[in-house]
Design brief:
This protein is mainly α. It is 78% helix and 0% strand. The chain has 5 helices and no strands.
């Protein structure tokens, strides 16, 4: 596993993705934190009600947002949650 895969956030990748624009990065981080809380609440509700498709769709959206941060471990976890929602191993 590479060093960047061990990071929660790959700050170098994030800076590169946003041309080192600290203001843009701050906006993206703020938006992510707000949406992640909402997404995790949706996942929790979907798990409690057994709605696999809702779990998968929300996990897929969360995975897309996480990709902006180069956080491969979190992407893998979101993918696993998405697969679980679709009933895949």
């Amino acid at each position: 596993m590479s060093a960047s895969q061990n990071l929660i956030v790959d700050w170098d990748s994030l800076a590169e993705n946003f041309d080192n624009d600290k203001f843009a990065i701050a906006l993206v981080v703020d938006a992510f934190l707000e949406s992640a809380i909402e997404s995790l609440d949706k996942v929790r509700q979907a798990v409690q009600s057994g709605e696999g498709k809702a779990i998968a769709m929300t996990a897929h959206s969360l995975k897309g947002a996480i990709l902006n941060f180069g956080a491969q471990m979190a992407v893998s976890q979101a993918q696993a949650l998405e697969n679980h929602g679709y009933g895949e191993p």
